[in-house]
């Protein structure tokens, strides 16, 4: 089981409590789809993903970006039980959707960049370390069906 410090817990809760899901989620997923275009193969039913402008203006990308953040919020509320929290989602992504688990890491890297850009100077090394630890544990929980 992952051990969380009081600082890490408070930092993760603070980041997510102040996050604008309607802008951060779409920005993170859009960035992932633009920077890592091979990830688009999982979103074939999302319509036009032919260029950055199309991706950033795609309402299905925006909606799924928000969905991702609401899913992460579930993890924030269950930090001591992330494997069980994401068990069903892990099965869905591994067995039904066949998502390569490395893509979760790419998405969380993009999310980190977007969060950093929004937080500015408040995004210190310590804050980044707490966020990336949380996201790494979530990625591990989501990818556990693959091992």
Could you explain how this protein is built, in words?
The structure is a single chain. Helix 1 packs across helix 8, helix 2 crosses helix 7 and helix 7 (about 100-120) packs antiparallel against helix 8 (about 125-145). The longest helix is centred in the middle third of the chain and has 19 residues, at about 60-75. This protein is mainly α and about 150 residues long. The chain is built from eight helices and no strands. It comes from Cyclopterus lumpus (Lumpsucker).
What can be said about this structure in brief?
By secondary structure, the protein is mostly helical. The protein contains eight helices and no strands. It has helices spanning 6-18, 21-35, 52-56, 59-77, 82-85, 87-96, 102-119, 125-143.
Strand content: under 5%
Order of helices and strands: HHHHHHHH
Number of strands: 0
Give the quaternary arrangement of the chains. Answer: single chain
Average of per-residue pLDDT values: 87
Rg over CA atoms: 15 Å
The helicity comes to over 70%
The number of helical runs is 8
Low-confidence parts: none
Give the N-to-C terminal Cα separation: 18 Å
Shape: globular
Reported for the largest beta sheet, the result is: none
Class based on secondary structure composition and strand pairing: mainly alpha
